[in-house]
Amino acid sequence: MRLTHLSPIGVAIAIAAVMRCAATLAGCRATMPASYARSPLSPAGEQTKALPEIRRRTLGGTTFSSAEAAAEGKVVVVKFFAEYCAPCKTSLPWLERFARKNPGVAVVGVSEDERESEARALADAYGLTFPIVHDVGTALAGRFRVSEMPVTFVADAQGRIRWVGGPGQTEAQLEAAVSASSR
Asked: How far is the C-alpha of 23 from the C-alpha of 19, rounded, in Å?
């Protein structure tokens, strides 16, 4: 098959898709999205970055603190999502399963919806029980340099980012990243 009718951007997209399939078939488990490979927060080899502090009121009225969770020796999972994001809606049920199955892991959702009522409606629709904070003014998204959703950050018990999962992330990848971060 000849690709001469594709634009340079189309060819780049096709090559990226083939590479992603090849990586999946080769058994790669917890890969980071390409857009985060150059992010200032992405872990590179042994050099990891600190998880930006989250200390916010949750939709349930309590306060979530990533620093307190790390002080308790917990791995921290931070999931950015929004009601308008179709891949987010696909990943929320398995994140809920993961949170219930792993009570020793601090899971927090960060809603990027414009209104808190939208975040509450989404949490109710999916029966989410993990803490969720509404990111008013996208301050947390800015600190985490979120450029696509859903995106999940996994930090070890020392508060160092060990994995970033983008829109194509799976439950198995999250489990592998948390397992690796628990060592």
From this structure: 6
With beta carbons less than 8 A apart as the criterion, state whether 48 and 54 touch.
Answer: no
User: Rounded to whole angstroms, what are the CA distances from 102 to 71, 76, 77?
Assistant: 18, 11, 11
Kindly give, in sequence order, each residue whose CB lies less than 8 Å from that of residue 163, ignoring residues fewer than 6 positions away: 30, 32, 43, 152, 153, 154, 177, 180, 181
Half-sphere exposure of 114 (CA within 13 A, CB side): 1
Nearest-10 Cα torsion for 65, 115, 174, 92: 130
Answer whether 41's CB lies under 8 Å from 144's CB.
yes
pLDDT for 44 equals: 55
What residues in the chain have per-residue pLDDT under 50? 1-33, 35, 38, 40
**Exposed, middle or buried, 20 (CB in 10 Å: 0-12/13-18/19+)?**
middle
In the chain, what are the domain boundaries? 1-29, 31-181
Tell me the pTM: 0.77
Percent over 70 (pLDDT), the chain: 74
What is 31-181's CATH topology?
Glutaredoxin (3.40.30)
